[in-house]
Amino acid sequence: MNINIFCVRHGKTEYNEKSLITGQKDPPLNEEGVDQAVDLFKTLNRSDFKYFVSSTLKRASETRDIYIREIGMEGEFVAMSDSRLNEVSLGSLEGKKRCTLKEFKNGNIDYKCHGGESYREASRRVGSFLSEIPSFMNEGNIIIFCHTGILRIMKSYFDSNIKTGKDIFCINIGNACFFALESKEVVFSDIWRGNF
Fold first, then answer.
1. CA-to-CA distance for 75 and 47, rounded, in angstroms?
2. Which of 6, 14, 91, 114 is the right S-S partner for 143, CB 3.0 to 4.6 Å?
3. At a CB cut-off of 8 Å and minimum separation 6, what does 13 contact?
4. pTM
5. Above 90 in pLDDT, residue 120?
6. pLDDT tens, position by position, 47-68
7. Using CA atoms, how far apart are residues 70 and 26, in angstroms rounded to an integer?
8. Tens digit of pLDDT for each residue in 173-186?
């Protein structure tokens, strides 16, 4: 089995522009975000993806759909959305001015805001999604469009250098930026031990 996973953060939204905490709020891409999604084709110019998966939130699915259009996909492929890839819910903080939470700065993956979820809780749904990839494809390339929190969690599942919560919160991915993972690299970090 050789599956390559390309992980893309969605393009910019008005929430990003205004430095507001987005979480599971559902703003669409703004004009710059649309341009970023179009430009993604220039840096990730591939037409060998079998699956194009996004969260169910507009900013991620719009980025996916623009990318598919720009690369001019032909032949058989699957475009789908999965709510397990939705951003970490930040509860009562969503829509408020972005700030550095001391809990995140200190690497507390069990912290959750009122009405939200912790990174550990979110990691369960992300791990569930990742573990199902081999059930619908056994080789090839998959591209996933989602969010900073979810991408942090995904990267931590594959990178043995990520050992603490502080390491997770140091991972930053710009709008419409990506990284690649190979399925054989899954290490299921000790950070998430006991999740499954």
1. 10
2. 6
3. 22, 27, 28, 29, 30, 33, 59
4. 0.93
5. yes
6. 889 999 999 999 999 999 999 9
7. 23
8. 999 999 998 765 45
Q: Which two tokens stand for residue 19?
A: 């430095």
Q: Domains of the chain (ranges plus CATH)?
A: 2-192 (3.40.50.1240)
**Quick one: 143 exposed, middle or buried, by C-beta within 10 A (0-12, 13-18, 19+)?**
buried
Q: Which of 91, 90, 37 has the alpha carbon at shortest distance from 61?
A: 37
Between the alpha carbon of residue 26 and those of residues 56, 87, 169, 187, the distances in Å are: 9, 10, 22, 32
Q: What DSSP letter does each residue of the chain carry, written as one string? A: -EEEEEEEEPPPBHHHHTTB--TT--PPB-HHHHHHHHHHHHHS----EEEEEE-SSHHHHHHHHHHHHHHT--SS-EEEE-GGGSPPP-GGGTTSBP---HHHHTT-TT---TT---HHHHHHHHHHHHHHHHHH-SEEEEEEEE-HHHHHHHHHHH-TT--SHHHHHT----TT-EEEEEGGG----GGGTT--
